[in-house]
Amino acid sequence: MNVQQEMRAAHAHHAGCAPDHVASAPATVVVAGDGVDNYGGASIIGLGPQRVCAAVSRRSDDVISLQFTRADGQILAATSTLAALNAPTAGTEEAQLAHRITGLIHTLIHRQVLSRETTGMDISVVSHVPHGVGLGEIAAAEAAITLACAGAHDDIDAPPLRTKLAEVCAQSATAYATSSPLKARYTAALRGHGTTLNLVEQADGSVTQITHPERLGLRMFVVAKEQAPQPDAFAESMRRRQEFIETAAANFGVTSLRQLPDATARVVQWVEARHTVGDSSAPDPRRARAVLQRCEDETARALGAAQALRSQQIDALVNALHPHAGDAADEALATPALLSQLACECGASVARPAAPGVSQSVLALVPTSKAENSASRMKENLLVIPITTGEVGRIEV
């Protein structure tokens, strides 16, 4: 059964009608540059072979009806309305997901991708991306839904529209998601290339192809203790970091802190000044410095890794991707730090957190000659997912 047939069957079961459009989008893996979007940094993103498929059709009433089938067969079903977006959201996973997807539909209408006459929709999603392991399952779903909603546009594959759709996904997730989104995932899923890695520069919105690790004799694996997202408290911590970065940029009148000379020193001085005048909402200056330094370091790592991949220098790549020294002391990164150590003991050249604040998984790069044995050793106690190459999001016909 192909994607079109699978989604027609799923949508008929859910909505009782044929879909208007069907689309799919890939899993995304963050090789370097996590958490630097709002800082204006750079990220390296790869597309995985796993995909999320979405089918959509208009409704005559105001209901947004969502059915989301996960890779393990779990079905999340919920309804919402555009009018309910400002109401408090129930704490269930289904309610939060429906709120997030309803927010996406609202943003698509506001950005004129969907007609302003749109009131309700049936949305069926079938995911083949494992949940909770840092492969961007929900981001892929949002990209697929967005493509399906834009399916009537003749220029669906044109770069300007693809850029707009990625911006819509990021804007919506920032407003309606409970966790802080990585905008570069949407950029790569909708504008990237599958046979190479993608260097996404937030400073200018560019996407550049760089050599895939497979060309250097390295296999990529995502390794996790279990399919479980990071606890909400950690996700909230990451969101507070992003909000602090945005607030600091606004204070200095720049789009991103990467545009600000001596950003770390100047922002820390600003934080200290807030404490001096009794601003209780100001973060701890040492914590502020650590957050900004990590953004600087992670962007430098992404650019260094990109250069190493271009020049096919494995040692330089491993050095660039080595985890931060302070990760083990960060509660949100403690489990990934231990997994990284275990992966390296099993033969990985380097391993690092795959999605800090979102998942407790790690991305491991293993020499091809050791890959089979290394994966077998890790599979004894861990979930191991091979990441090869994928394809950009597309309309399914």
TrEMBL record:
Per the record, the domain of life is Bacteria
Identify the Gene3D superfamilies for this entry: 3.30.230.10, GHMP kinase, C-terminal domain
Protein name as annotated: Galactokinase
